[in-house]
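Data availability (excerpt). The following record was deposited with the supplementary files.
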Amino acid sequence: MAYKQLKLWFDKDLALLLADKLIANGVAFDKNTFVRKVDQGTKNLELKDRVELIADLLQQHLATDYRSGVKELVDILGPENEKETGMFKAYYWVMPIAKYVEKYGLQHFDTSMDVIREITKRNTGEYAIRPYLEAFPERTLKVMEVWSKDKNKHVRRLSCEGARPRLPWAAKLDIFIEDPTPILPILENLKDDPSKYVQKSVANCINDILKDHPEIGENLIDSWLPCPAKERKWIIKHALRNLLKHKDPWASGVLKRM
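Predicted structure:
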């Protein structure tokens, strides 16, 4: 993937890529119409709107039944991403598929949870999962708590990143801004995670919590201080970065206690 502005990758060439993958799998797909509409529709759009347009056109051209249509999309995902990077390079083309699940899968909870789990192994499901957290918070968090123990680091990361109250480039999750305690069991499961990719997500989630409910964030970190492993120490220090920048006495004291 040569360097160019990310939004410019979501164009006629991406439409051709998706259409060819689907047709190669035996899907009856109107390639010419799909590519033409993507080419015409994306020219004056920014990134998010381009992704959404392509997702909408996929919905129009795939099987009318969501379960059938989303299976056709899952079948083209290909090998999982074994690295902690590459989601927006090698797997950028998966983003419209995630948007498809985000927009059209809400009435098919179990199917969509399985698909989001597969998507995040290549690109990311952190945006797709958020409407499900808003509509079915308890049910979705139960799934995400299971994900927090998954053998795949991308799935473990999603269990935390998708529930962040103030995830960048996404709508805020007011439910967790008001009360982040439902997220805490997930963070507990991840506090010693070996993956730096996951550690960053945990730290960022705690950083979000500290902004709105410092007492909850502080109590969580205090509970983690006895005999912390190096992974947990890194998470705590990264979570406190903003407080340390402002020389917060409690945060400075945490470092002395580790």
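Summary of structural features: The chain has 16 helices and no strands.
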